[in-house]
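QA checklist item 7 of 12: single-chain prediction sanity check.
[x] sequence parsed
[x] length recorded as 591
[x] structure emitted
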Amino acid sequence: MAMAFAREASGRVALSFIGEGGCSLGEWHEAINLCAVGRLPAIFCIQNNQTALSTPVADQSAARVFADKAAGYGVPGITLDGTDPDQIAAAFAWAVERARAGAGPTLIELVSMRMCGHAHHDDMLYSAATLSRPGNTPRRAIRGTWIASCTITGRGAIRSRRMPPGFEGEGVVKTAELEQWRREAETVVEEQARAIVAAPWPDPRTAGAGVFAEEAPRAHIEVLDPAIRLGTHAPDRLPALEPGPPVDPRGRTFLDAVTLAIGDALRADPRVFVYGEDVAGTCGNAFLLLRPLLPEFGDRIVNSPVAEVRVLGVCVGRRWPGCDRSARFSSTISSRQGSTSWSTTPPRRVIGGALGCRWSYACLSAACGTPGRITPRTPEPWFYRTPGLKIVVPSTPHDARASLRPRPWPIRIPSFTTNISRSTAIRASSRGWPTPPAPIPIGRAALRRSGSDLAILSYGAYAHVAMRVAARLAADGIEASVLDLRSLAPLDRAAVLAVARHCHRVLIVHEDSRTGGIGESLAAIIQEEAFEALDAPVRIVGALDTPVPYSPPLEEFFLPERGAGGACRSSAGGILDRPRLTRRARRFPII
């Protein structure tokens, strides 16, 4: 959010509050360092209540006070009595003035003592308040000191002696007003508490609402129930063929397409900006991806520190203030997965779906090219379990540009999109486009090849593997359909089931390992909802369940491409001389 406030020059300041235990996290370090480097308008407040759940300060930090850490980030830091409202008000007013003047963030440490448990389940056995032991005598003494000096005592009575001494003398406040304020505060709290207790429980069905803005509420469905299964029987006709632009060695590459798509977005909306490591300056990304855009959009292509998680956090926070859009390009993604999963989709559900904006995160990830552990295995299963996150995995330069194309506001998708591109495909090329392609609806698969003997499902770079295998099968008289999923979430379930019912045999090929991969989820959908149409078990071809190796021969053995052809022939075995079930027999199975 601090980045958003700085770019829009709104004068607003972002405030971060965290306990002294939480500031040990790497994400907090990345956040304050990122704001310091960019001189962003932010205030970082550490609420030091001297116990992180049950862990004392001495076990959290070796620094004398937490504000001393500010010097390491090049920002000012101060430590205050966290029970003194006058000190707190003055410090925050000063920090806000600094931030609005462009001087960057401030670190404020407020020292107090927690008088209750960390949460409702915390019995405070570590505290002198509930456990009397000789060793707790110093802690009891410290606790007594804080109780005596606390602004709020008992059930919230405000001690007038804690008011700044000049306020009463100057006529700013009267002693009688303090008691009135206390009563008003207690009344407001009591009214709201009673309203919450009296409120009815929410409709259970709303738990499935708002995952994607444009879909109906999700609900449990028993697919084996005849009323459901036969009432929603999908057609067995193949979708329309969508081969895409032909491959052209002299055409646009995948990287060219992404560059053009980012340029499209920057031209379409002046609020769009690109934020990431090595994207600005003279480099323009490790692949020189953005270099052609730097002369035109240099002020909107912004370098970040090596911050891993918080770089993505900038894009997440950017969406809150005014539903602006940002793009992020990365070559690795493993350490950012948690930030994507936990910082993107849950906030939209918390505020009832009121957040109407979109951001895109583009990343490259694959095993090919002997990266070993540097670039980990394909990340889509990590994101697949994050409801509300749209996952796009284009296989062609045309689709890469079209999937990142900006959409007009009336149909802008208020969701969060991760666009995963394979490093195996970034140099792939196809015939160029004289004009920008129309945006591809997210959630629509593409039938790249039609056939009736075998359905091959894939996505990303391995859609090309599927096409090569299908061509080899065609030489033997076996015609295979190839369905390029393009989007994993939302999934084009209708297309998946249609090709499965039409071909009666299904092979799923992907670069990820089989265990816990997308293929197992697809196979479960097909066998549950199209079982009566199958002549053979659904086959899955994936990489080995091992770490990604470094040596080229080991990597070749690790990847699934070598086994894809054999699996196809095995899945298609006997289909030319084996009688098939009639359509009537398939449509009315015994359940």
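[x] summary fact logged: DSSP finds 21 helices and 22 strands in the chain.
[ ] second reviewer sign-off
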